[in-house]
Amino acid sequence: MTQQSFIDRLGDHRLLGIIRGSDPEASIASALALAEAGVRFFEISLTSAGALQVLREVTRQAGREVEIGAGTVLTAAEVDAALEHGAGYIVTPALAPSVPYAVSAQVPVLAGALTPTEVLSAVEQGADAVKIFPAGRFGPGYLKDLRGPFPEVPLIPVGGVGAEDVPGYLAHGALAVGVASPLCGDAPDGGSLEGLQARAAEFLRAVAR
Fold it and tell me: What does the CA dihedral 206, 135, 51, 19 come to, rounded to 10 degrees?
């Protein structure tokens, strides 16, 4: 890991994978398969079965070039647990109590928001970037609209972002895109790892354009 800031590194890679699974072993295998495919940033959602154990094991097995965070983090206690199990950054679905607490812990925070008011609140609370969720309900044009009043805020669209949508989001100033089921499919539930790696290659091509 270089001395370059977390946000700069994520902005260079432009893809944040999101693992949310019902099978802990399959979730671990999915994370390692993503890393093998070349995905360098992904989060383990705390709504996954055995999420903290998955986080610890993936952190132990993945290479140093992979940066692993915890997602769907809502409370201060969940921030503490995620950091204790190896998370390097915190991702939230909304402006939850986890945001200012994680900021105070001096770890990178990607805070969930949707409206302009929520984006402003995330910035005021010290978030490093704002996760626009659910972005897929509104499309790349909505991100363009947000960039008008917030040209300097790093925005990451998440939720229903397909590989075909990636160029539009990046063209409208997205720092990166966050992708769960369009990338992972059912692999974290025990489905095909080969399919997951094929989708990873497709998304990596999309963010490299």
Answer: -20
All structural domains of the chain: 6-208 (3.20.20.70)
Active-site pick, 65, 67, 131, 144: 131
Question: Is 25 part of the annotated catalytic residue set?
Answer: no
How crowded is residue 76: how many other Cβ atoms within 10 Å of its Cβ? 16
- Kindly report the pTM of this predicted structure: 0.96
31-83 pLDDT, tens per residue? 999 999 999 999 999 999 999 999 999 999 998 899 999 999 999 999 999 99
To the query of whether residue 43 is one of the catalytic residues in this protein, the response is yes
Can you give the chain as a three-state secondary structure string?
CCCCCHHHHHHHHCEEEEECCCCHHHHHHHHHHHHHHCCCEEEEECCCCCHHHHHHHHHHHCCCCCEEEEECCCCHHHHHHHHHCCCCCEECCCCCCHHHHHHHCCCCEEEEECCHHHHHHHHHCCCCEEEECCHHHCCHHHHHHHHCCCCCCCEEEECCCCHHHHHHHHHCCCCCEEECHHHHCCHHHCCCHHHHHHHHHHHHHHHHC
